[in-house]
Automatic annotation (TrEMBL):
Residues 42-64 are annotated as: Disordered. Transmembrane segments: none annotated. It comes from the Bacteria. It comes from uncultured Sulfurovum sp. Keywords: Metal-binding, Zinc, Zinc-finger. This is C4-type zinc finger protein, DksA/TraR family. Gene3D superfamilies: DksA, coiled-coil domain. Residues 97-132 form the Zinc finger DksA/TraR C4-type domain. The keyword Magnesium does not apply. Residues 43-56 have a biased composition (Polar residues). It holds the Pfam family zf-dskA_traR.
Length: 136
């Protein structure tokens, strides 16, 4: 992203898509809150996984149950880590003045989309393109 594009986005006078200082503060606080929740959840999940590992039994039924629980926890941790990384990138973008700009087309992301998914990095159009490409 070029500096001029960034300046054009945040310094436009009469643009409805411009994020105000108050909106940026709102998104920053919401992102920080989401980050804390995810970190707490990851800590709890890791503690539970540790506890399950220590309490394993040699019974086949319990081993099967443990494996299922472990697989579910691994999936949860993977998704939470992915979301945490997105949140951290968005917090960095707020600091650098790039939050709310699509990483693909470099156009402003609609504020309503940001309100629904505060850690989104793509506008609706680019997100649809990504989803179509993932289907193939």
């Amino acid at each position: 992203m070029t500096k001029s594009l960034n300046n054009n986005y945040y310094n436009r006078e009469e643009d409805e898509e411009k994020l105000t200082k108050d909106e940026l503060i709102f998104f920053k606080e919401a992102l920080e809150e989401k980050k804390v929740k995810i970190e707490k959840s990851l800590t709890k999940t890791n503690q539970e996984a540790s506890s399950h590992t220590q309490n394993r039994c040699n019974d086949e039924g319990e081993d099967a149950s443990f494996e299922i629980t472990n697989n579910v926890n691994t999936t949860i941790v993977r998704e939470q880590t992915k979301t945490l990384n997105q949140v951290n990138r968005c917090l960095n973008k707020i600091q650098t003045g790039l939050y709310g700009i699509c990483t693909l087309c470099e156009e402003p992301i609609n504020i309503e989309r940001l309100k629904v998914k505060i850690f989104t990095e793509h506008c609706i159009t680019c997100r649809e393109i990504i989803e179509k490409q993932q289907q193939y």
